């Protein structure tokens, strides 16, 4: 949920980090970053690909995305520097993928909302 697409993508990252590392993840520090850019045919497509990249970084590169420095964010494109730190712990759940199953972005009372289902 977010007032704009930046807020939506930031909160999606926050939610995924809660799933992966728990409600009280160890504070992460690091100055490593990764440039992420994706253009899709809609916000659902952008969101799925962004979260898939976060999963790849966590499981394959052992890096936690702890913040985003936005360059551009709208309904069809996200470009940002993903700020990375070494994973403070092993992910608590093994997520195979982000799915499109029942994924739909809606706007209610000026807030963009999305429900994402992960394949575990």
List the strand order in the largest sheet.
1-3-2
Distance between the termini: 22 Å
Amount of beta strand? 25-35%
Main pleated-sheet profile: 3 strands, antiparallel
Question: How do the strands and helices of this protein lay out in sequence?
Answer:
Layout: H1 5-21, E1 32-39, H2 43-59, E2 63-73, E3 77-86, E4 97-98, E5 105-108, E6 111-114, E7 118-119
Antiparallel strand pairs: 1-3, 2-3, 4-7, 5-6
Helix pairs in contact: 1-2
Walk me through this protein's architecture.
It is built from 2 helices and 7 strands. The protein has one domain: Archease domain (Archease, Possible Chaperone, Chain: A, domain 1, 3-Layer(bab) Sandwich), CATH 3.55.10.10. The mean pLDDT is 91. The two termini are 22 Å apart. The strands form 3 sheets. It has a 3-stranded antiparallel sheet, covered by helices on one side. The protein has 120 residues and is an alpha+beta fold. It has helices spanning 5-21, 43-59, and strands at 32-39, 63-73, 77-86, 97-98, 105-108, 111-114, 118-119. It is globular. Helices cover 28% and strands 34% of the residues. The longest helix has 17 residues, at 5-21.
Relevant terms:
120 residues; alpha+beta; Archease, Possible Chaperone, Chain: A, domain 1; three-stranded antiparallel β-sheet; two-stranded antiparallel sheet; 2 helices; 7 strands; globular
């Amino acid at each position: 949920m977010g007032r704009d697409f930046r807020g939506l993508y930031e909160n999606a990252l926050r939610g995924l980090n809660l799933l992966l590392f728990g409600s009280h993840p160890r504070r992460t520090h690091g100055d490593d970053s990764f440039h992420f850019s994706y253009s899709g045919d809609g916000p659902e497509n952008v969101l799925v690909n962004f979260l898939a990249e976060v999963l790849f970084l966590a499981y394959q590169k052992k890096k936690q995305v702890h913040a985003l420095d936005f360059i551009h964010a709208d309904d069809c494109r996200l470009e940002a520097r993903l700020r990375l730190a070494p994973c403070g712990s092993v992910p608590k759940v093994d997520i195979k993928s982000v799915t499109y199953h029942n994924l739909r972005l809606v706007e209610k009372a000026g807030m963009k909302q999305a429900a994402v289902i992960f394949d575990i």
